[in-house]
Amino acid sequence: MIARALRRHGVDAVFTLCGIHIQAIYDGCVDEGIRLFDTRHEQTAGFAADAHARITGRPGIALVTAGPGVANTITAMANAQRAGVPLICLGGAGPRSLADMGSLQDLDSVRLMAPVSKWAAQIPETRRIQEYIDSAFRIAQAGLPGPVYLEAPLDLLMASASDEPPPTSPLAPARPGCDPESAERAARLLEAAERPCFIVGSQLRWSPRQAILERLTQHLQLPFYLNGLARGALEPTHPSLFSHSRRHALERSDLVFVLGTPLDFRVGYGRAPLWNTDARVVQVDIDAAQLGHNRTLDLAINADVGLFLESLLERAEKKRTPQWLEELDGVELARKSTLRAEMESNVNPPTPLRVCHELAKRLGNDSIVIGDGGDFVASVAQALSLTWPQLWLDPGPLGTLGVGPGYALAASVARPRARSVIVSGDGAFGFSAMEFEALARHRLPVVTVIGNDAGWNQVRRGQVQIYGRERAVATSLEHSHYEQVVQALGGKGYWVERVEELGPALDGAFAADVPSCVNVRLTSGS
């Protein structure tokens, strides 16, 4: 009944780690033709469900066993919650008749999962299984998407009930539109502005009007900054796309549209000194609770980002600000010139941006690139340009490490003909290294590129500055041969110390039919 309910919602893949409490659901998945992809840690199953949702636009499914199996998914659930991703975690549990008696893996999982879930519930009886799964899909996608936890106790799975379809039915999630008065006010603010800019975030990806951005930029030739899942909505050469001048823009802009992204640390909380104190701010968010968080707004609109942009397009006059665009172009060109010098550097060991430059040459037009790490990934993120259907996936504002193999597993399942690439720090690699056994067993040719700087350098750099090198503790690693770990688990591995070795190693990895790892020792100080 559970598998049939999932199938009604279009589910064709589930990410899991086995357990006695959930094996009956496996049998149902076999009957319904739902593929099971098992991992080596439940956290990875949760990460895979997260990424599958981001790629397909539909809730991803993690299926985990009772007690520690559920507890192991908490980080993935918290990550999806902070990033606004519709993930459904189905958890096993002991028989209800043995609750609180000390049965195997007995745990109050619903209460444990509630803080990291939009909804956490135990299915109360067998005849309501399909109804509760329908509710899980509805809640996960309603408003701001997010994770849901649904528990199926063992005795519920062993009972019987009619498998007739429930009175509920799968529906597309409702999305709030923009009221005409707010759209008109936004258009008038835009008309009066001399130096406006737009920051567009991940909520665009979930909108039924996600393609509106291209049309809007033909009408409003203004600076747009894209972050999160919105990256790639405009092609890298688009005249309205700006990537390296956001700080300058926020310091100078007199009107900022913040669309579908929170005013968090990534944008200086919407406050001075990063922001112009005289700037007017319009915030549009599908989550009304985010409106006005961290700063006063001039206009707050609770709406789907794509539907808002569609309403704005209908009401705004054509606008172009040549001097403002020229000013930002100058900042962009200066930054790109600096980046280009490092991309083309022949220093040995290679620089992070030289690694990124060589990697970019080998990406296909539907490749998925996954950022898993801190310092090295930050370098790659600022230099790598992608265009939909290419995707950039990173954990989001929670900053979770170890997402790489789980995200890549889901990416390879969702797009089997595309190449999935993990860009990983050497520290992040250690979180989920055993998952390369699962990737190899499932014959998924994921390419991993490790930037090996022998340290947790995003932390260590500041630690050295504050405390001195002799007191910089717990942030050093070795230039370990992680590629040998991947080889031992059934993949291929390449060790790179020189620029001339980088291209052939990447070519070998991209040609492989098993997971591969290119472990690049980076130049000192990177």
Any overview of this molecule?
α14 packs across α15 (375-383). The protein has three domains: 2-158, Thiamin diphosphate (ThDP)-binding fold, Pyr/PP domains (Rossmann fold), CATH 3.40.50; 180-330, TPP-binding domain (Rossmann fold, 3-Layer(aba) Sandwich); 344-521, Rossmann fold (3-Layer(aba) Sandwich), CATH 3.40.50.970. The model has no long low-confidence stretch (mean pLDDT 95). The strands form four sheets. A six-stranded parallel β-sheet has the order 2-1-3-4-6-5, with helices on both faces. A six-stranded parallel β-sheet has the order 15-14-16-17-19-18, with helices on both faces. Helices cover 38% and strands 17% of the residues. It has helices spanning 2-8, 23-32, 42-56, 68-71, 74-83, 109-113, 129-141, 154-158, 180-192, 212-219, 246-252, 305-315, 322-343, 352-360, 375-383, 404-414, 426-429, 435-441, 457-467, 482-488, 499-511; strands at residues 13-16, 35-38, 60-64, 87-93, 119-122, 148-153, 196-200, 220-221, 224-226, 255-259, 280-285, 299-302, 319-320, 368-372, 391-393, 420-425, 447-452, 492-496, 516-521. The chain has 21 helices and 19 strands. With 526 residues, the chain is of the alpha/beta class.
Q: In a few lines, what is going on in this structure?
A:
This protein has 526 residues and is an alpha/beta fold.
